[in-house]
């Protein structure tokens, strides 16, 4: 059982087994950093230096896969930057998926909500027509709808929709959208 480390290199023996495997095969360096291609070496006395020290990156991101062809040398800083960027990109993609799901959800809910509001407006019109007063409330409703429409257009633009796409939804041209709701400078 003395050669168990060498018999199965895909099983982690310790948190730094991949480093030991790489260094046993290639020595302390210098090695070319996989990310920036500049020289990287192990620090003095085998200690790891903060930013420019050597670390070993798993190409397939599977830390249990310690096969030599899956291990590449990297500066600690380059390696950390790569994984930070990867996490940021994953977060952006997750946010995009959530926004798309919310947009699909709101696409289903918005017509139902609008239908309910239209029923209420018709009911208000009947009451006003029956002599309950409040004709000026229609003017306020019109202004509120105009404001809400402008806010919706601005929000759709902030989510990346073009004026052409917005115009298509409203049944008007891109130019009409641009004239009615100019982009703020």
Protein model, in words:
The protein has 185 residues and is mostly helical. The chain folds into 2 domains: 4-82, no CATH class; 100-180. Helices cover 59% and strands 8% of the residues. The strands form 2 sheets. Strands 1-2 form a two-stranded antiparallel ribbon. Strands 3-4 form a two-stranded antiparallel ribbon. A hairpin with a 6-residue loop joins strand 1 and strand 2 (39-40). Mean pLDDT is 79; it is low at 1-13 and 44-51.
Average pLDDT, rounded to a whole number, is: 79
- Strand pairing plus helix content: what structural class? mainly alpha
- Measured by DSSP, the beta-strand proportion falls in 5-15%
Which residues sit in consecutive blocks of at least 5 with pLDDT less than 50?
A: 1-13, 44-51
H/E element order: HHEEEEHHHH
Describe the SSE topology.
Blueprint: H1 4-7, H2 17-26, E1 31-32, E2 39-40, E3 54-58, E4 71-75, H3 76-132, H4 136-158, H5 163-170, H6 174-180
Antiparallel strand pairs: 1-2, 3-4
Helix pairs in contact: 5-6
Summarize this entry quickly.
The protein folds into 2 domains: 4-82, no CATH class; 100-180.
List descriptors.
59% helix; 6 helices; two-stranded antiparallel ribbon; single chain; rod-shaped; mainly alpha
């Amino acid at each position: 059982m003395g050669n168990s480390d060498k018999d199965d290199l895909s099983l982690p023996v310790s948190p730094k087994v991949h480093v030991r495997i790489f260094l046993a095969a290639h020595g302390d360096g210098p090695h070319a950093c996989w990310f920036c291609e500049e020289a990287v070496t192990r620090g003095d006395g085998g200690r790891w230096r903060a930013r420019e020290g050597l670390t070993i990156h798993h190409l397939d991101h599977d830390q249990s896969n310690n096969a030599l062809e899956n291990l590449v040398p990297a500066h600690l800083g380059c390696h950390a930057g790569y994984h930070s960027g990867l996490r940021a990109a994953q977060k952006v993609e997750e946010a995009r998926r959530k926004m798309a799901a919310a947009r699909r959800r709101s696409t289903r809910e918005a017509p139902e909500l609008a239908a309910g509001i239209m029923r209420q407006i018709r009911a208000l019109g009947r009451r006003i027509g029956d002599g309950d007063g409040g004709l000026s409330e229609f003017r306020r409703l019109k202004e509120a709808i105009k404001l809400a429409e402008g806010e919706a257009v601005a929000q759709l633009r902030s989510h990346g929709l073009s004026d052409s796409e917005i115009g298509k939804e409203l049944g008007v041209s891109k130019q009409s959208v641009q004239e009615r709701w100019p982009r703020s400078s």
